[in-house]
Amino acid sequence: MSFGKVFVRLSIICFWILLIFIALYFPSWKIFPIEEKNLNVFAWGDILDPKVLADFERDTGIKINLSYYASNEELQVKMKATRGQGYDLILPSDYTVALLIKEELLQPLDHKKLHFYSDLYPALLNHEFDPQNRYSIPFEWEIYGFGIDRRFFDTHPFVPSWRAIFDPDVVDYKIVLKNDPIESVLFAAFYLFGQTDSLTPTQFDQVRQLLLMQRDWVEAYTDFRADYFIASGSCPLALSSTAYIKRIHNFFPQIEFIIPEEGSFVTIENFCITKASTKQDYAYKLLNYIYTKESLISHYKNYWYFPAILSPKDELGLTEDERKLYEYSREEFTKFHFFKNIYPQQQVRDLWVEVKSF
């Protein structure tokens, strides 16, 4: 075979090898870099309206990659494990914001890029978990209290106090409580000692004894089935939040929301941009879109959390009592407290196992 023919064949083989190589690897080469128009959002499963996100994608061309977590603890674990890589915008609750700031997992916000910032409800700003809202902005909020069956308590005495779930001289009915060890310890500690930032071992033992005693009149510990127990008449009282009780009330008007007279707890869900994100411009576009009046109304009517801006209030269909809550002044807001860890978490979880198996 002549040298010319060998050369031609080798050239053909090399050509096809090169062609296959280019087909396999060219898509990953960034010779002509094209910015991907997407934003990775990590959020609770019942907080962002899919229709609003779909409208945003249609109007901007920016795709939202949405993933979910079921608890603040899950969010913390994933953020620490990844250092925020793969996440741009997250929605932690108040006390979790402080933990993420401490871990240096959030980046400062540019308030000038938030067109709605001046409209935010002042009572939700400048709290201890982020004093100047440097890293977080409130999106939605809710208050914890009692959902009660008014039909039952029309013929039975009701004490609008934490005694209604903790005092054996008051409780002669079944109740439904939250299935959360940190919250449960905090509720019990608030009943026993008032607002506190920490517990001594002696105080923690008092909380333990109270929760074990309370077990006798607890029908269920649940975060998602309180509606069944209270609407079916199995329990006349459930410890829950404004948003959850509102959902029940829409179908069962006899269910009312009551705030204990000693005060209660509030949770604020906040938007934060992760320190690892390089898509700040897209994040600000989404935030400005979500905080429009139309979006906030849509979110409220889907999930019933109070929005962080007051302007939609006349279009939310609030009852008189709900409007009073929604318009609390900063001074009135001080009777609400934020959730926090007041005792080592492992011991709190061990106690919860004991309570649930008691």
Task: Characterize the structure shown.
The protein is an alpha/beta fold. It folds into two domains: 38-135 and 267-325, Periplasmic binding protein-like II (D-Maltodextrin-Binding Protein, domain 2, 3-Layer(aba) Sandwich), CATH 3.40.190; 144-263 and 339-356, Periplasmic binding protein-like II (D-Maltodextrin-Binding Protein, domain 2, 3-Layer(aba) Sandwich), CATH 3.40.190.10. Helices cover 42% and strands 17% of the residues. It has 15 helices and eleven strands. It has helices spanning 3-25, 50-60, 72-82, 94-102, 150-153, 163-166, 181-193, 201-214, 226-231, 242-251, 280-290, 293-303, 320-326, 330-333, 345-356; strands at residues 38-44, 63-69, 89-90, 137-149, 175-177, 218-221, 237-241, 255-258, 264-273, 306-307, 336-338. Strands 1, 2, 3, 4, 5, 6, 7, 8, 9, 10 and 11 form an eleven-stranded mixed sheet that branches. β1, α2 and β2 (63-69) form a beta-alpha-beta unit. α7 (181-193) packs across α8 (201-214). The radius of gyration is 26 Å and the shape is globular. Mean pLDDT is 90; it is low at 23-33.
Give short descriptive properties of this protein.
358 residues, alpha/beta, D-Maltodextrin-Binding Protein, domain 2, 2 domains, 11-stranded mixed sheet, 11 strands, globular
Q: Describe the main β-sheet briefly.
A: 11 strands, mixed
Total strand segments: 11
Distance between the termini: 90 Å
Task: Output mean pLDDT.
Answer: 90
CATH topology of the largest domain: D-Maltodextrin-Binding Protein, domain 2
SS field, number of helical segments: 15
Backbone shape: globular
The share of residues in extended strands comes to 15-25%
Architecture of the largest domain in CATH?
3-Layer(aba) Sandwich
Runs in which pLDDT lies below 50 for 5 or more consecutive residues are: 23-33
Into which percent range does the helicity of residues fall?
Answer: 40-55%
Corresponding CATH superfamily of the largest domain: Periplasmic binding protein-like II
| CATH class assignment of the largest domain | Alpha Beta
Domain module count? 2
Q: H/E order of the elements? A: HEHEHEHEHHEHHEHEHEEHHEHHEH
**Which structural class do the helices and strands define?**
alpha/beta
